[in-house]
Amino acid sequence: MTKTFRFYKTSSNDWYIDLPGWTGSIEELAMVQGADSMLDTVSGNTDECYLKISDEPFENAAILELIVPRTETYGGGGDYILEKYESETINHKMWLCEVTRHVFNALPAKIYFKKTTGV
């Protein structure tokens, strides 16, 4: 699966994924626990960015690696690490919630992404 998604920051500085067709609550689309600060970095501290995201490698993609899958007791989803971004070692840890399973139909061992210019 390879798709481009829009991420946006609200006036209260909360990041969300724009996920057309989502039937759950908006709170479930919040980017928290490290995913928010990763989006600050990737967006250049702006309030919007588009990311091409895939569970298959592609040219010039950054890589999120699954460290630990979480059980539903601990919020579901998984803990990931972004070891490098734009050739710089950052070792940035984050939690990606169960929406990740919705997007990929699984919890990928690696998620590849690259900032892009829209859908």
Write the layout of secondary structure elements.
Blueprint (H helix, E strand, L loop, with lengths): L1 E8 L5 E4 L11 E2 L3 H9 L4 E7 L7 E8 L8 E8 L2 E9 L2 H6 L5 E7 L3
Antiparallel strand pairs: 1-2, 1-4, 2-3, 4-8, 5-6, 5-8, 6-7
Structural write-up:
It is a single chain. The protein has 2 helices and 8 strands, in the order βββαββββαβ. It has an 8-stranded antiparallel sheet. It is globular, with a radius of gyration of 13 Å. The chain has one domain (2-116). A hairpin with a 2-residue loop joins β6 (78-85) and β7. The relative contact order is 0.25. The chain has 119 residues and is mainly beta.
- Helix-strand pattern: EEEHEEEEHE
N- to C-terminal distance: 15 Å
What is the strand content? 35-45%
How large is the radius of gyration?
Answer: 13 Å
Strand segment tally: 8
Helix content: 10-25%
Count of runs of 4 or more consecutive helical residues: 2
Low-confidence stretches: none
Large-scale geometry:
globular
The total tally of domains equals 1
- The whole-number mean of residue pLDDT values reads 93
Task: For the largest sheet, list the strands in their spatial order.
Answer: 3-2-1-4-8-5-6-7
What structural class should be given to the helix and strand makeup?
mainly beta
